[in-house]
Give the backbone structure.
Amino acid sequence: MAMTAGVPERYVADESGSRSLDEMMAEGSDAQTVSDEHHDGRPAAKRARSSYDKNGGQAGSGNGERSITPTAARADGIMDRPDFNALKRYSQDTLDYPRRRATIACEICRSRKSRCDGSKPKCRLCSELGADCVYREPGIKLDAGDKLILEQLARIEGLLHSTLTGASPIASNGPSGPGPISPATSNTASDDFHSKRLSNNGGAVNAGAALNGLGTWQANISTIPKNHTTPALHLLQWPIVKTLVTRQCDPQVLVQMEMSREPLNLSQPYQLDVSNISTYTTAFFERANVWYAVVNPHAWTQYYRNAAAQSFRIGAESCIVLLVLALGEAAYSGVSISRLPLGQTPPGMSFFAAAWNLLPSLMIQNSVLSAQCHILAAAYLMYIVRPLEAWNMLCNTSMKQQLLLSSAHTIPPHLKELNDRIYWNTLMMESDLLAELDLPHSGIAQFEESMRLPRSFPFDGSTSSPGEEPPGSDDLWYFLAEIALRRLLNRVSHLIYSVEQNGKRAAGSSFTVASLEPVAAELDFQLSQWYEGLPAPVKFPRERLQARDQIQTVLRLRYFACRTIIFRPYIQAVLCDESVASEPGVQDACRKCLEACIRQLEYISAHHEGHLPYLWQGALSIMSQTLLLMAATLSPPLAALLPPAHQMDVIIAETVSEVERMAHLAPSLGLCAEIVREAEGRRQALRGRGIR
């Protein structure tokens, strides 16, 4: 499957609000401006024409014919030099970006559009709020994304403040207040802000005072908190789930089980399939790179030349090429490894083993290409369901990234975009693991506020010959949408599931349903804004209609997973006290949560569309949603919101079977299978006896 080849532009925002992601990534039009002019007479902001525009909305060719197949394979298995005569030059569009404005007030006053009196150490407003008063140093500039992020943080903080302390809301959503902001369009700080921020020892943007109660207010709530109750295993602490699962699971059990498993055996000889290099390369750029966007198709030819010159035995380029082929073979197979016969070698393992032999020398290098090798290795390890090994690769990538970003001027200009993409991959993959495993944080999140979103890869015509073309397109649709959604998921963990360092304050135990309502409503609003801002090529139907491709299918599953955890505390509250179901808004919130769960499980085979990047995370999510639905069937107020009992039995039975098919892939997934199997058996027994 080939995504449309588009180069999204960074959105343009005026004083009154923000543009959607669809306007960021203008689709299907040859117009050179977003509109003829603004309502106030100002000229329109220009946008870049994407290659999706120029191709009339058609996806690139998927015939798999590329002229990068080696001319020969020597007897010793070493790949010979390829023929590059058929590659053609690829052109690159330029982008226009919003003007940046200087900060003239403290951050709190600026975020609320209040006049700041400039008093130090605290201005008048910050003194009244008891907030930290932070001024930016003269000369530091913010782009439109900074402004919108700070406004949105202030808005959520106002909701929290009014709910938890009884004060009147600080932030307004009326005509004079800040308008709604889509997390899809939340951009980040400019390059000069990034360098200045690092020179100030990493001082973070402080958009509000610390609050006690629901969540833990921090400067950046778009990174996952260190202590939270989001993981699937935390459902085992719910009283009604305890009646279904007798096994006691320590929060560290998944980590312990993964640590005790047999290590990967990469010492056995693997035969490299050099006859399908072209096929695997095409498959990577059409079906794998869309998830990560971390390999520049314009640079691929040069990478391959350099690797071939070294006989694929040394250097970062050799390692990158081998890892691309490993992921390409995995993508080409199109089959989840849960469907492979037991004991069969996963697709791409031969190329991964060859790349693994090169990694030791790259681990001690702190270059962008070395970091790229490690992020690609982590991606393949997640594909074969090795989460802890992937986390080790991510930690190494994180250290390299932190060193590089601490001296950003040392990053070669032509590699800056690649480095940005490696950063976002590292942050998102680490967030996915930290959402389920109790692992140390690598520290990569400290740079999140100052990182810009990915743009287009630079094109260097000097590295190409006449008639050459890249093996694929640079697709950013999914990657940008996933960055925004992952940040929203992290906000949910911060604002609803964050716990104190001692772990005593569990989510749902120290706040009322009334205090939860404005926070859940705001997060659900942001999720809706994210969806509405999706461009047409990746905008999935929320109705029960077939998605166009695997990208839409995966985004739809991620959307409903996010909605589930936003409203999950309502289910917990009703299960603990069924009288809560009669409170205003509770029944509707529970219905939203249960519907989102069902939408993820009713067509369980859809999860295979994301088997390459999300098999392990998806299995844990499936277990979580299944336990929640099982518990709901035993509660009359919640069961009334579900489909008929016989339909629920079919959905749950198919889900249990699916989890059991993945049990052999990892000890952690084996535990998931045991849990859902026992829970369903005991649920049926309780229903048979009329006990709940």
